[in-house]
Amino acid sequence: MPEPYAKLSLGLDIGSSYVKLVALSRRPDHWALKHVALSPLPEGSIVDGEVMDSGAVAESIEALFNQLALDERRVISGISGRAVIVKPIRIPTADPDELAQSVSWVAEQYLPSLDDVNLDYHVISTGGDFTEVLLVAAKRERLEGHLMILRLAGLEALAIDVDSFALGNCFEQAEPEAARGTVALVNVGASMTNVNVLAAGSPRFTRDISFGGYNYTEALARDLSLSVADAERAKRGELPDADAAAVDAVVGETTLELVDEISRTLTHFAGTHPELVPDAVVLSGGSSVLPRIKSSFEDTLAIPVRLLDPLARIDLGESGMDREDLATLAPHLAVGIGLAIRGDDPEIDR
Ligand SMILES: Nc1ncnc2c1ncn2[C@@H]1O[C@H](COP(=O)(O)OP(=O)(O)OP(=O)(O)O)[C@@H](O)[C@H]1O
Ligand SMILES: [Mg+2]
């Protein structure tokens, strides 16, 4: 008889600085981590969410699979940035069987052409005269580029999700009680910051801001006349002869730019949804560990801010690693874990 929970669910997060692979296994009331690995990408392989060097990205992915000696080659991966448009729309309530058709009619009003995109949607709420729907339009060209990389790496896509939705799934799994309220999830990566305002478990608004860890490195390189490699080390506190006060000042100013942009984003959202004021901002992403990023967010947004622990409720027993081993990796894993969790979705056909 096959082992009941042998099935692995692989989340593959292809970021612009690191590829992250998370292998989870479903247990009756929780998830177990089986494997996790991260592989750096050569600079310039992915710029602004767009793949510039498919071969280099595929090689990094293959390196991860070889490192973990995995037989399972079917993954759930995600797209973000300009590859995808997410828009809340209202559809006059009709027969549920006709919803997909109604969504594509309404989508035509918002999108220049339906020929260039793959449409999907999530129902947020029903009842009354309107159904609230989150329209998801993935640019076909970018989607095909993504699938091509997976093929090059010898993988098959079980599903392609949206990074900010995966972030929401990760949060719901990590903090199920808090996910019943309204929270602003902010994942600060290398070239991008994904924002997802989640209310009662549904993403209500998402935006990918083209700003992240690279902006800090660039600012340090420029203002302190450092090479990019040294600026990256200075940012991480790993450049012994750097002027710590000067590094601190540049990091602080750059965080203010980021917080300003997020503040504008949340104000814009509050204008259309005054009833959905976030109770908290929850930070994740490789750049969320920057010094004082949390207090800077708190000062500007006047909302409690905390860091997400994506592994909080995941059983690590079978991974061969403990919390301490995973501490530096954890901030990078929110999207990858959220993608792997999608493996549980009954819509995904194995
Ligand atoms: N100790 C550290 N201190 C500051 N920044 C760090 C540290 N460790 C990693 N980073 C930054 O984290 C970023 C990578 O985070 P992450 O893996 O979330 O991004 P990504 O998914 O590759 O990028 P994106 O989603 O933006 O395309 C890099 O900009 C890196 O410089
Ligand atoms: Mg990322």
Automatic annotation (TrEMBL):
It comes from the Bacteria. SUPFAM superfamilies: Actin-like ATPase domain. GO terms for biological process: cell division. Residues 9-171 form the SHS2 domain. This is SHS2 domain-containing protein.
